[in-house]
Amino acid sequence: MKHRPAFSDERAPGRRPPFVRAQRMTIVNGILLFVVLIVILQLWLLTATMNAYLGGDTGVVWPAALASLVCLGLNAGLLWYLYRLD
Amino acid sequence: MSPEPPLISRGASAPQDADRSTVPPDGRPLAEQPKWRRDFPIDWPQDEYVSRRDLVKFICLTSVAFVVGQFWIVGKSLFGRREAALPALAIADVDELPIGGAKTFRYPEGSTPRLLVRTGAATFVAYDQQCTHLLCPIVPAHREGMGVAASERGLELHCPCHNGWFDLETGRPLAGPPRRPLPRVSVEVRGSIVYATGVEEPAA
User: Fold this and answer.
1) Among B49, B55, B62, beta carbon nearest to A24
2) In a 3-state reduction of DSSP, which class is residue B137?
3) Region of B103 on the Ramachandran plot (φ > 0 left; ψ -120 to 50 alpha; else beta)
4) B117 pLDDT exceeds 60?
5) pTM of whole model > 0.90?
């Protein structure tokens, strides 16, 4: 596994120092919490949409799909940020 | 070039920089760890960090699956309702039913029961016979209540299981637990024969 020094003199001047290990652990836990909440929201959206669709209501199908896509975008952004930490 | 700091905390001799050191999961010094852990020391906090990150990654894959499911429903709503046109089927003679009379039939063959009701001299309506609440069979009936006698109110469709009522002309729910209209069967009178010509899915 890659070991990253906490304070390196090789970083570019003016650049924010990298997070130390404890900080990154806090960040990953926070992101994990957000991602789980968003996925639970998506699960609810899928269930409600299927219920409405089977009941003959197709008006909510497109908005729900777009909302779910936005949720995926949020999740992807959080994951991208997480990979950028290394 | 300075040597890399040890990955394993060795009790009192551990380096002060917390980010450069690591400790086993139980927090005890390396000397008190089991042999397998001493033989294969790893960076445990980093291992935990990578595990959490991978968990986030897999949850994001679940998020992708939910989006795929949503768009599958979109696809079904766009293309799933296109059914082949049904052939016309003779279902009754005009003189077979009195005005207000009803007859069950199946259209297409093998479908759930449908109900044909004669509403006038040459007018008929037909609906799915299953109530949209809990699928009990519906029957034509007059509704009492709200100060109107049953004989003064027009004929409606009644679900006796939970006292649901539907409008005879449109199939819309009027009273009781049903919230969705009845699926309608298109009918045509050709000569003295009543034909079923198609099934209309109810609008939302």
Assistant:
1) B49
2) strand
3) beta
4) yes
5) no
